Amino acid sequence: MTLLFAVCVISKDPIVLGVAAITAIISLLTDFFDGYLARKRGLVSAFGICGDPIADKIFVLGAFISLAARQELALSHIATVVLVIREFSITGLRVVLLVSGARLLPSEKFGKMKTAIQFFLILLFTGTLALLYAGWQVTVFLRAAPILYWLMTIVAVASGMSYLWGQRRGLVESWMQGRRPS
User: Fold this and answer.
1) pTM, two decimal places
2) Which distant-in-sequence residues (6+ apart) come within 8 Å of 129 by Cβ?
3) CB-count burial class (<10 Å; 0-12, 13-18, 19+) for 21
């Protein structure tokens, strides 16, 4: 889905940009229903706790990197780098905790809110591009895009810090495991 989105979002054809938006919607819906069914049927696993956020991160980062390449949106490349660092850091944290055998906490509500905001902005930015190339006046959206992008980046960093704080005990335990004599 990420590759399809990226290929479509570089287009200036409103129909192809619409396909990018549909791809994002399908990605969002499959992510939602996968998580819902896993929780409802008690199929939550360490693989799912790590794998689902990785799949989300691949799509979200691929989408934002592609969207940041569009000059019309004027999205900050620094904000994109901050997002990449945040996402890889949290993923790395999950791997460290999983390998160390520490109790791995599932995503928090703050992190889920961050993901919802990210998907919303992906759709908003893609839709704005589609409307722009369909001849609509979207100046307000184009001016708001960089501001919304930075606000989302701040929320992403804050949710990462919150998750890190919630995992502090597991991090200390994993750090101490490597320091104990055999």
Assistant:
1) 0.89
2) 9, 17, 70, 72, 73
3) buried
